[in-house]
Design a protein that fits this description.
With 163 residues, the chain is mainly α. The protein has one domain. It contains nine helices and no strands. α2 packs parallel to α7. The protein is globular and about 50 Å long. The model has no long low-confidence stretch (mean pLDDT 95).
């Protein structure tokens, strides 16, 4: 699977979905129609996008948008960001505050999508998804922030999410 096919699956699953749970269910259904090796490939591409979004700046915006953001919360935020589709994902990678244009407060998490490939693979093959060889860095990329600095660092996000 290439990156174009990956994003087509994400975007097709989002069309008409009412929420993250429904989008994740649709994604699982689409993935189950693929050969097992394509599901594995999808998962590798998904994990690579999660790592790409593992930045302090995105974590800062996620913190403001969700009224706080733990390690797990940031993982769910990155899943949510991928679920928004290629255009929004790539815009947020370049400018984390672009999230302000499409994210509502406290609605920026999608835990279910993190396990879509594993669920599809298991339902298709009866086996667990092979472990990914994509490894996360120990720390997010960029400069670590302190909570009291977030308003100064991300003024658009602070304005929208603290209102």
């Amino acid at each position: 699977m290439d990156l174009e096919a990956f994003w087509k699956l994400i975007e097709a699953s989002k069309r008409g979905a009412e929420d993250c749970e429904e989008q994740s269910e649709r994604l699982v259904a689409s993935l189950k129609k693929l050969p097992p090796e394509e599901i594995v490939s999808f998962d590798h591409l998904f994990q690579a996008r999660r790592i790409e979004a593992y930045t302090w700046n995105l974590w800062g915006v996620a913190y403001l948008a969700n009224g706080g953001c733990s390690d797990d919360g940031f993982d769910y935020f990155r899943g949510w960001l991928i679920a928004q589709g290629r255009k929004r994902f790539e815009a947020a990678i370049k400018d984390p505050e672009s999230v302000v244009s499409f994210a509502e407060p406290d609605e920026c998490e999608c835990e279910d999508i993190l396990s879509a490939a594993a669920q599809a693979y298991e339902e298709s093959t009866g086996k667990s998804l092979p472990a990914s060889d994509v490894r996360s860095p120990q720390e997010p990329l960029g400069s670590q922030w302190e909570e009291e600095d977030l308003e100064r660092l991300f003024p658009k996000a602070a304005k929208k999410y603290s209102a």
